[in-house]
Design goal:
The complex is a heterodimer of chains A (431) and B (207). Chain A has 431 residues and is mainly beta. Chain A has 5 helices and 28 strands. A two-stranded antiparallel ribbon of chain B has the order 1-2. Classes of the chains: A mainly beta (431), B mainly alpha (207).
Chain lengths: 431, 207
């Protein structure tokens, strides 16, 4: 007699299960990747007509902070916004994500603002936050400003997760931070460093990398409102990270990667021909890479500009190279900053002070120039170690504005974020 | 606070299962749940205890919550223990899921099974078949673990858009793999003990 109710119960459970799984199936249709957005800069004047322009200035202004990992994006009207992290040292609890705005009319950077702290990240994500790093800012085609940065709850950088904030009014107000879920293993080990790539439907491609046990790069695909939709592996193994991606048309793009292995110490490249879904096996290029971050941006002639430490070891020289779309021909454009010592050997504090003072005056721009004496009297652990004082120019980040100007920011001796800008005419002279 | 419902539930169930395994808590078990619920809200530096645990474990999978809930009911004596064979079915299923997911997250190859959770329709069909098989095997625990995880995925109850994050997490993976290995080791040991000793009966003690 019990067999019938049992059978009915089983049939009921079976129907219920079918309904649940059908609902899940219906609510998650497959998604397709849109092609890369084709928003080339509307150059105001051709290279032949325009006057060559090249200038530099400091973005940051606080003198006592260790500053690092900057990024910049162009805003409508020619203004810029930059973000970086600053604190007593990398990984310290007091590290904040700071920002500053570049006023196109005055040609100078404004005061620093605090954009995110451990406390604001803890409050937004409802998680304990130990440290912050690597902020990345980008303006989407719909004029929403996105800021991604990493945070760590437990352990080192290898256990990072990515947080996101968004602004609908070009950086006046920001949403509370929220954490992206990108990994099945306690959601750890996803970091961001390079500029996002936008797709034609407003979706976002974020170059990310992993550092937990393996070191490899991925392309994280987000909806236009910042939900993680998919991800695609760019590289595998333990030797490549921090991809920087340059779209060439709607489907093709090049990723350049920092090399973290022990063999050839060269920049790696990978290609996609399906808008980021599959990537070729990374291969070494001509320039060297001492396991340091690099940045690339597309040029008007479909080539690339690449800023990198073209060294086997150390970060005492930052170079700018131009290359063709096939990455075969590399031409030096300019040495952006370098140590006077060709091997990057340290200097005595006295000699260093003189050299860096000269560098300061050449780099600071008019608004930060009055800081020189205070800066020179404050040369501390950020530049000087017991064995001597070093020069370090690293972590470049590229952006192009609608007027065709190239904007590059990078860490200048761990003490300032430096901004270099130039136009197509200046580039044409150098290439 | 609503966004943290899962963190609090995880904290309460996880703590109850751990404390409930101690014999000395037996008389107090019915009181433990409300006490742990209150403890989960205790704030430290503006963050609840449950949120601190979540900072380390991330949001647990829904299937893990079902398992913890079932173990909690078992500790309270509300449900009967599941026979070893049915538990082994659960360990086998989630152990296989763990083995197919986690090694690939190390990035040794271009194959990334985590992606299957972002394009989940084939996985949903597969898990649906597995749930029906568990129903046929009269294994309610496994069936509800898959069913509740999938229902939560359909309703988007977690921050993740990935089906895997509703089905499995490292805690569940670790439990299933350890329990599965224990089961295999036990079976191996029993087999070894049952095996007749080589040469037994031929050797006679010399007098």
């Amino acid at each position: 007699m019990r067999a019938l109710p049992d059978r009915l119960m089983s049939i009921g459970c079976g129907l219920l299960l079918l309904a649940v799984f059908f609902a899940a199936w219906r609510s998650h249709p497959p998604h397709e990747l849109a092609p890369f957005a084709q928003a080339g800069p509307a150059t105001a004047a051709t290279a032949a007509e325009a006057r060559p322009q090249y200038s530099s200035r400091f973005v940051s202004s606080e003198l006592k902070d260790f500053v690092h990992s900057s990024s910049v994006t162009a805003l409508p009207g020619g203004d810029l916004m930059a973000v970086w992290f600053a604190g007593s040292r990398e990984g310290a609890a007091d590290v904040q994500v700071r920002s500053a705005r570049f006023d196109a009319k005055s040609g100078e950077w404004g005061a620093e603002q605090v954009l995110a702290t451990r406390e604001s990240t803890r409050s937004g994500t409802q998680r304990y936050i130990r440290k912050l790093g690597n902020p990345v800012i980008a303006l989407a085609p719909d004029n929403r400003l996105w800021m991604f940065y990493v945070s760590v709850s437990v352990g080192g950088w290898a256990t990072s997760a990515i947080n996101v904030m968004v602004s609908d009014d070009l950086g006046q107000h920001w949403s509370a931070p929220r954490q992206l879920i990108t990994s099945p293993f306690f959601n750890i080990s996803t970091l961001v460093r390079a500029a996002p790539v936008f797709h034609a439907d407003g979706s976002i491609g974020l170059p990310v990398y992993h550092e937990f046990m393996g070191k490899f790069a991925e392309y994280l695909y987000l909806s236009s409102d910042g939900q993680v939709l998919d991800k695609f592996r760019i590289s595998r193994g333990k030797h490549s990270l921090q991809p920087t991606i340059v779209p060439q048309d709607g489907r093709r793009a090049i990723a350049m990667l920092r090399y973290a292995g022990d063999n050839h110490h060269r920049v790696l490249a990978s290609r996609t021909e399906d808008a980021g879904q599959t990537w070729s096996e990374p291969y070494p290029l001509e320039p060297s890479n001492p396991n340091s971050s690099l940045a690339a941006v597309g040029t008007a002639d479909n080539g690339l500009l690449v800023a990198l430490n073209d060294l086997q070891d150390g970060r005492f020289k930052l170079s700018l190279y131009g290359t063709d779309a096939k990455l075969n021909e590399w031409r030096s454009v300019v040495e952006l900053d370098q140590s006077p010592d060709p091997l990057g050997q340290p200097f005595s504090p006295e000699a260093y002070k003189e050299i860096i003072g000269e560098g300061f005056r050449a780099s600071s721009g008019a608004r930060r120039l009055p800081l020189e004496q205070r800066f020179l009297s404050n040369l501390d652990y950020r530049v000087c170690k017991p064995r001597g004082c070093d020069f370090e120019y690293e972590y470049p980040y590229f952006s192009r504005s609608a007027d065709g100007m190239y904007h590059l920011v990078y860490s200048w001796n761990n003490t300032f974020i430096k901004h270099v800008s130039f136009n197509e005419a200046w580039l044409a002279e150098r290439l | 606070m609503l966004s943290l419902w899962q963190a609090h539930l995880s904290f309460i169930l996880l703590s109850f299962v751990l404390l409930g395994s101690l014999r000395l808590t037996a008389p107090w078990r019915p009181w433990l749940l409300p006490v742990l619920a209150l403890v989960s809200f205790v704030p430290i530096n503006g963050l609840s205890l449950a949120a601190y645990v979540r900072s380390v474990t991330d949001d647990l999978a829904i299937s893990t919550l079902v398992l913890l809930g079932w173990v909690s009911l078992r500790r309270l004596g509300v449900v009967h223990p599941l026979p070893r064979g049915k538990r082994a079915q659960v360990w086998l299923l989630f152990g296989l899921l763990a083995l197919s997911l986690y090694p690939a997250t190390l990035g040794l190859t271009y194959v990334d099974p985590y992606r299957w959770g972002f394009n989940p329709r084939p996985m949903i069909v597969l898990m649906g078949v597995a749930a029906l098989v568990l129903l046929w095997l009269r294994n309610p625990l496994g069936m509800w673990m898959l069913g509740a995880g999938t229902l939560a995925f359909a309703l988007r109850l977690k921050a993740s858009e990935n089906y895997w994050d509703y089905l499995i997490d490292p805690l569940l993976a670790g439990y299933c793999l350890v329990a599965g290995c224990g089961l295999l080791a036990g079976a191996g040991w029993r087999w070894l003990r049952r095996r007749p000793r080589a040469g037994a009966g031929r050797l006679k003690p010399s007098l």
